[in-house]
Amino acid sequence: MAHEAEYYDNMVKLLELIWGEGYMAPGGPGNVAKLLRGTDAQGKKILDIGCGLGGPAIEMARSHDASVVGIDLEAPLIERATSDAIAAGLNDRCHFQLVEPGPLAFDNASFDVVVSSGAVTQTPDKPSMFAEILRVLRPGGWFTCYEWMGDGSACSEDMQRWIELEELTYDFKTLEEYDGLLSVAGFSEVEVTDASDWYRAEARREYELIRGDLYPKMVDLLGQHDADHFVEDWRAMVVVIESGEMRQGYCRGRCPT
Fold first, then answer.
1. Using the 8-state DSSP alphabet, how is residue 39 labeled?
2. Which domains, from first to last, does the chain contain?
């Protein structure tokens, strides 16, 4: 069954407006640097799961001279990523592929590093995903991701309101659950780091920006209806972030040698 696209045009425009050209998760190039820190990614082969518009993959090719394969479920995102890589003169080191949910279409031990930013959050079957990631990693290679998470409590009305506004698939686990899932999958040197304080401040800054100085540009770019929708979306997100119900974190693990 074909994947039903969730990232419509105005949503993508809004995310780029807030997070930077080519990015569909917060942090921009700085987030890429955090993901790759300590992974010995220089000149290596990297798989980017949920590559989106390709911004992180292009940054990895530029900053680490890496060869990057980006995969995503949505054709318009892959088309845009491919176009941007060509425009950047990096299409020899950045290749993007449209995929379906399920096993990864790569041989065992194909990559030195696997990265993801947000794709695990949107994947219900995390054990199978982690097993596949471990399979395609070379011995000693790293899996590293940045994800949005829950606090382990039942979903509040505020959280339900935010998810309704997002119109995206989410499957939240806690930081501790990620630790356990990666260990059970067979990763070694598992590390989890809470990044909630960082994004709590960022989310508040973003919200003040889009309802203030950036709002007129949003209306011009997206129309009044969608501009107001995203302002309310960010307001609802700030509520669940500041309450601690929605959290963020970095997780990594190594393929045993």
1. S
2. 9-254 (3.40.50.150)
